[in-house]
Fold this sequence. Notes:
Layout: H1 3-9, H2 33-41, H3 54-57, E1 68-71, E2 78-80, E3 89-93, E4 96-100, H4 108-117, E5 125-129, H5 135-138, H6 141-148, E6 151-154, H7 156-164, E7 185-186, E8 192-195, E9 198-204, E10 213-221, E11 224-231, H8 250-260, E12 268-271, H9 279-287, H10 299-327
Parallel strand pairs: 4-5, 5-6, 6-7, 11-12
Antiparallel strand pairs: 1-2, 2-3, 3-4, 8-9, 9-10, 10-11
Helix pairs in contact: 4-6, 8-10
Amino acid sequence: MRWISGLLAGALAACAPVAQDSAAVPAAPATDKTDVLESIANLVDDEIPEQFDWQQNFPSWYAAVTPYQIIGTGKTGIYFVGTEGLGMYFIPTTAGHILIDGGMPGEGQYVADAIRKLGFDPGDVKILLNSHAHLDHSGGLAELKAMTGAQLIASEGDRSALEGGFYLGSEDDSAMNAPPVQVDRTIADGETLKLGDVTLTAHITPGHSRGCTSWTMPVVQDGKSYQALFFCSATVAANRLVGPPQYEGIVDDYRKTFAMTKDWKPDISLTNHPEFSGMADKRERQKAGDSQAFVDREGFPAMMAKLEAAFEAALQKQTLKHNAIMSD
């Protein structure tokens, strides 16, 4: 299967070890970046076994870090509750709390424990959000929903994959399945979501998944307001762009997202693979005393330029390969 090779250009870039806070690691320690890439390279174009060992191949997705406040005043703002390789974000409000993404299957308890370490009760989480319906971001949502009783809000484009527990377009690849989870409410592009003193705005940025959803919100620190962006993704990763495409219209969707985000310059850009937005380095600067370490208005445009170039290169490569196969 070709999806593994796509991961080299996408999510796997986040698998290199990063220097966030150390904590008790519940899984295999992160390996050297070269070792990770070599292990994945050995799987390129192979059939994915049903019992594929995600933890062995993606150790940073399971490596614990100490949760921390990214930005905010007092107990408000945005907190990181993810792992070295997966970004999960906690947003406390005056009327309960919001959580974005649940990590891999089985990581719901890890996220709940991270919230407790911050001094909050995970039982007060009222809303679960999902950036997109791929198992490394949706896998823990069913566990978290059962644990907290929170409402899951997601896009219509990803609803079927969330509720069916599959990777859209690769429904027969059981290794890519996630625990099915019921969507309580769908949200549309430009729609706002308000809980207590926090308001988030949904932005449907499709391509990486059919309903890939990014979120923006204002956050205040030291009396100044900043615009934060939780960006879904725009990597090709596991997706087929041609022959047949992962879903109809995927190429147009990617290009729509690149055009839509061309002028976006958020103050704070947060990604569901921390490596993409340089979170480890920013965290180190924050620990050294830089209270604005995560403010980076040039980071998002630079990342998107690289992702757009990578998309066009992947499209060309997949098209050439597909044409060669069809001509045989």
